[in-house]
User: What shape does this take?
Amino acid sequence: MPRALSIRQPWAAAIAHGPKRVENRSWFATYRGPLLLHSSKTLDRTAMRHPLISPILRGLPLETGAVVGVAQLVDWHRDDGECTPWSFPGHHHLVLEEVTPLSLPVPVAQGALQLWTPSEELLEQVRIQLDERWTEALR
Assistant: This one.
């Protein structure tokens, strides 16, 4: 069963529409596989001035409270000091591949602080925007 992860904006946009392929968390989980990228309702205003974020944001709408993309979560490891410029020291790094933004973000009433299981209805609303490869992966 696919999982979802809530990510504050502008970090969610940097993943869905930019080069950010590592998400940082203070906790660890064993899940690997398809992941819905949910932009939480809270905006990280400090991050808006982050030097890696500002160039990505130009012209991008910062959707909140919606699934904005999908990705394959392929690894989850402790900080090794050599991951990417997006990695925060001392955190666990979620390594994402095959990131695909949604053309139409799908509103979600509420996310969660940990990985969460999306409803079948939400998965269907996401699947109809994606190609066959993703459709199968999100089953």
